[in-house]
Design a protein that fits this description.
The structure is a homopentamer.
Chain A (H helix, E strand, L loop, with lengths): L8 H7 L1 H21 L8 H50 L5 H26 L12 H6 L6 H4 L2 H6 L4 H8 L4 H18 L5 H26 L4 H27 L9 H20 L14 H15 L19
Chain lengths: 335, 335, 335, 335, 335
């Protein structure tokens, strides 16, 4: 997530520079042909260009709406994870009861730390790569990776989980296909055992168990956004229409500028680049927003949110040495 | 679901080629009449064409929004099925209790395998055909079926169900009208019996039963999308307006190109084809998205999601020989 | 509901023919005045027409979005009725318990058949007429009634209810203002009595009672859509703007066609009819979608859905002579 | 709520007549200056007008969407009040139990009548006036008040409440700041007492109490729409842009009509009035929809809905002398 | 929140005056160059400007929709806080029971006053500043602060909390990272203790505890809107496109006005300012709406809503000296 006021222009222009080069070439070719070879028919009337432009604007607007919705829903899900984590905190602390205060404290810590394990496994799963994601396959995004680091790509899941689980459990979990899902199953098994031993009353057991179900909901919603891309048929026509528009734009401008004067046709190039850049930028912004867990600068900041949850819950447990919250780096990127 | 970066152009152009042929013909006719027979009145002014174009863009934008919503809701429902299936796993495992570990294990397995039976019956029901669906009635879609296989069309429901149910139950279920709904009724009857025999406490019984109600919700939502098409009155005007636009487009272009020069009117044909293709492609993309369970390349991948659920739940049961997840084929199609 | 691929053109054109006649007249008048009486000032510039056209397209797009939402929400509510009906089935069957199997069976049947009575009363209430509905007041809709029958207009509520309730209850219910609401109150009174006699445990009683509350929710949502029309102020401006557009359209076209040649002004008539027809059709489609329970060909198919619920629940009861599902008629209309 | 087919034109035109007078003046001034004083520069090119028109159409479309949503949400909330009122009816009747039938009946009546008191207090609160509301501050709306009456402005809250509460309670409630909220608190206190005296079982008590919480939700949602206007910054720019458009419209038309002929510039006035009227009407319709509880002809009909709830619940209690439902008046207005 | 009819023009124009100055300069430069240096090529055709204008209108419309949604959701969350606060009132009053009336009263007061403490801590947290917020970083917003005061910036959290908590608790809470979250944890610990001492029955305990979970949900949703800005990539392109449009607008107008006459090109300046002002105003309104808790004049009025909750709940407790509700100041601003 960018947490500054606006993106810096000195980041933005280089990030879109390949499209600018392309637009210069694609508008220079017909202009030169028109000017030097006098191919008059290249200057088509404006109206077909306007129609293609309108259709492209519709499609681009639609895409931006949907990718924004994906991002915002992803943030809502993580908001719900925050809320349910805090609820997990108070329900564990006040519903898991033992006459011996130190045993009770140990139980509370165990259940809350295993929750941190779930958060950790989940965020590592979300930051894996998918075939339709852009952060590693697009040169401009790879390049932009110099401005920030993705914590889940820098460290090892086992190492991270070790802080929150004992070795037996860890060895068992690490073999599982979907680690986060199986950690919640572990929590459930533990709650059953506490219920059977009378440390959670029957009524309270039902409530805490229901919270596990909600955590499965949140995990599943994350996986839905992670595993189901913005439909590729829509993404494909968006790309096709923008490229088509970039091809017909200079043809339409040629006819407009040629009305002013022969030399003015060269203005076709800068104007095509400016107008085309508007549409390519819309497209590239949409592309870089559609996968909110891919390790992009526009990602939902799941690492720092997980840290914030850890702080809140350890504060609830009364711990003293709380970790520091993660903050944005010098480029205002917060992961 | 297409899980690649974008659709390949060598798939896309052939998929829309009939519309291209049509556009060539429909624009060549008035152009030829204008050129050879000098029917000047065929070249109508641009403004009525622009108004029809705007109205068509509105309608097409509206349709794409709604079909996207249908697809996305279908995926959300299946996401909820994943979540509830995992919840089913932990609730069965930790709320169905027996002092004898092997009896308990058998009960868990029975209830979880019957859940797989429900998933199987449901996905077979969803992949049946409906009168308004397009995958089998449209030649370009039939043709595209060479790029992937629909698993539910290749195998037999009874065979598949046999893996998860005993023969008596299977014989009973196979006679029912709505098999999936009756499998859940079987689950409910089983839960009652377990409750009556004290293997599920009264409080826990209420919770598991509530989960069955949620599964009925998800099944019903699937059936809603399956059985209630995108309203045919809206689909009909979309088709009518696009065809109407394709007829008036070349007439409007004729007048624009004739202003440049007599021979330039032949440019009407390529330009009409390009602009018309934009609108026909929008329409065809919408059509191929509106039924997310028809066996289309853009379907929600319910077969592989069912498999993923099976893996997760059998992993929870502690089984060793887990089936492999389904992956996309060479054309990036995942069913 | 139309369950075919698309509306047939031989149905569609006659359905909108009055608007076509009107458009011919409204465009012929200024054209004739211009041509014969040389009233040049009738040919106004295009720009004001374009602005009115844009505003009308916005309003028409807005209306179609909202009427689609009304239809889709109506279908969602009926989907929820299907889900809750199935849940009613399993909860009655597995929570209403008696040691005597035949008494139990009779209780189950009574409660489930009374549910069919509720469905019947509800669908009769929904198919009554309201002042703002169009199916009986618009000649083109009345005419279209030859293509299908509305079952609730062909039969008698008392007769239908007799199948599901005993005579005492029926006599009592038939006097009530809101019959469906009072049938659910009957169900509630029955559940209380069963709870007091120990045939539903206290915990289970709370769950089944909660389901009745949900059925009230669904009934109330149906009544909301039935009794609260698409706001008449918005419907009114839609109609006014379309008619206004139909008046200014030929004036704008006159000036455009007169630039081509004097005789070409007669082209104003066909072009005005085509463009005006696009907007009138949008308006008429919107109108025929906005009330999803009025007995229109585009209604939610509540009769066949009620039948489907009856089949599923009687299948659950183990009955043998199940009724046949309702299917679409020859014109693809399913009610 | 207007429950007719459409607004009558003889109501509509007078309702917007002040805007028409304004438009005549604002377009006559530049036209006269242009014609008589030959101020040619007043005739500006069309393109800036078109851009302002497009931006205004966007803003007006946005506003109509949001005000429609406010109205529709208000109706949804009242639909939920209907549903919860019926649920209140069956839950009170079947969960508040006494061995003495007449005591039980009295208890049921007391709790249900106090619910009517809540509905009454709520609708009086909702029909109070706010600083941003339009029904009393706009002359055209004040004028329109001759076509209907707002029942809450014609009667006295104390008188109305007397029908449903005893004098002690009434005297207590009438002193409270938020009467509706405190009536629900009274219900809650009564339920507690009934629970303590064993007339509501512990399990059932929790369920009924939860319904009170839902009624607070509905009340609070009503208050949200009542007390939080459509944001004034958006309302302000809407008004400013429409007035700005009305000023530049005739300037743009001047240049278009002057191309036809000198005398034709006078056509600027009728055309400006027609086009400007479209935008002012959109604005005025939006304004009159944005506050659904202000006593406007487009209000949610909360008086008649409250009456309908009273009828249903007294029918449930088995009363005989039910009040009549409220119906629309001669002008089709239902409050 | 502005609670007047509309923003006053004498506030509005100064608030946007810097943009007006900028627009005068940016349009005067090319006009002067064109007029004095005869740089004809500066007058570009209108069509590229129209395309950029359309794309900018799309983006601006999109932004306004999303910022409106943020504001409205923020108000919905606070509406839910109102509802849950009232529910907290009746549940505490009627579910926390003691045979000794004065002990009971003290307990009720304690739990309800601690709820006020939570509201206080929450609103102080929400009115802190973030890097992307505008109220303190934008000169026009800083200037506008003269028209109202932000209560949370004028007083001290500890002082405010002292009214509602005892000193021990306060000293403990004030050290915590997230004070509001830890106050709810305190409530939870207190409920546990009351449950263990039999002052809340087991069933009722579960219900009140569930309400705490809902309060965590509301707090978390507030934090989501507070901590996750309108995505900076979208905000950035909005700003870039509006500035780009302001640069190309005068170039396009130059060509249009130069067609009328050489001196008329000076009209480029006022017309560019008017049209550019429309787009800059849209942008600035969006900017000032996107953060509904930043201390802006358009904020959700969380201070006065907290006060209203306090009044309602103390009224419920039967207190006599209720505080006065907060009302809008002379400039109609309500915080």
């Amino acid at each position: 997530m960018n947490s500054g006021r606006l993106y810096k222009l000195q980041h933005f222009i280089p990030w879109t520079r390949k499209k600018i080069y392309y637009l210069i070439v694609i508008s220079a070719i017909p202009t030169a042909l028109y000017y030097f070879l006098d191919l008059k028919w290249l200057a088509i009337p404006w109206v077909p260009v306007a129609l293609v432009g309108t259709a492209t604007a519709f499609i681009a607007g639609f895409r931006n709406t949907q990718t924004y919705n994906r991002l915002w829903e992803a943030r809502q899900i993580w908001g719900a994870i925050v809320n349910n984590s805090r609820a997990w905190g108070i329900m564990v602390k006040d519903m898991v009861r033992d006459t011996d205060a130190s045993i009770e404290k140990a139980l509370h810590q165990e259940l809350i730390y295993r929750h941190f394990a779930w958060l950790t496994a989940l965020r590592f799963q979300l930051r894996e790569s998918r075939g339709w994601e852009n952060v590693k396959t697009r040169s401009y995004n790879r390049e932009y990776l110099k401005y920030y680091k993705v914590p889940e790509w820098e460290s090892d899941l086992s190492e991270e989980l070790k802080k929150y689980m004992n070795d037996v459990e860890l060895a068992n979990i690490i073999k599982k296909k979907n680690k986060a899902a199986q950690i919640l199953a572990l929590q459930s098994a533990r709650l059953r055992s506490l219920n059977e031993h009378g440390k959670i009353s029957d009524l309270n057991y039902v409530e805490i168990q229901a919270l596990l179900k909600e955590l499965y909901d949140q995990q599943g919603k994350n996986e839905r956004i992670k595993n189901f891309p913005y439909p590729r048929q829509f993404a494909s026509i968006n790309v096709m229409f923008v490229y088509l528009l970039s091809i017909v734009l200079p043809l339409g401008f040629l006819s407009e500028f040629s009305k002013i004067g022969t030399n003015c046709v060269w203005l076709t190039i800068p104007v095509s680049v400016v107008v085309g850049w508007v549409f390519f930028t819309l497209e590239q912004i949409g592309e870089s927003t559609e996968n909110p867990f891919e390790g992009n600068a526009n990602d939902v900041p799941i690492t720092s949110m997980s840290r914030a949850i850890e702080i809140d819950l350890r504060d609830m447990l009364g711990e003293e040495n709380l970790p520091e919250p993660l903050v944005a780096n010098n480029n205002n990127i917060l992961m």
